[in-house]
Amino acid sequence: MRKVLIVVLSFALLSTACSTAWVSTLDSILAAAAPALINILQIVSIANGRPMNSNLAAKINGDAAAIKTLASDFAKDGGSSACNTLQNAVATYQVDQTLVLQLAQVSDSKTQTKISLLTDLVSGTIGAISAAIPACQAPTSSAENASAEPLLKLRNFVASYNVILTAKTGNAAVDAVTPKLVIHQHSKVARYVSLGYLK
What we know:
Blueprint: H1 2-14, H2 21-48, H3 54-77, H4 80-103, H5 109-132, H6 143-146, H7 154-166, H8 172-177, H9 188-193
């Protein structure tokens, strides 16, 4: 599943790499990936009966926000300095993912399987994030890129993640909380205004 996600994301990203549409694509990936990563921390804490690592959760949110800001700066500037700073921020976010993976160990085998499937899916987003960022050179544009279909099928990532997330494990505490942790492709306002049509 992870390999399929990377291929789909990378293919879709290649079509938008040279226009500034990649910035909104990157924002969309992070808007789903960062909460998905934090959800894994929550599941681990519930399964182990310990408080969630709130410092790591805050760091993930902060690092994702930094990537969004730096991506916008790079799209405007296009210089190698801005690109290098952005790449360093992505590397920092990747370290956050590694830390979550190191903490994602529970004794309940069914919950551990759920966590492993979720971490495999989420770790594929680093490839998508990296693929979204154009090469470190002045951005170019073309009519073809401007009309390209936006990035990955984010709904596929969100749908796959939510199916795995809400699958029953038999652990009552985990099964009670996971339906509340589903991620969405669109903001709460957009979902409300569309009367639930947008997910």
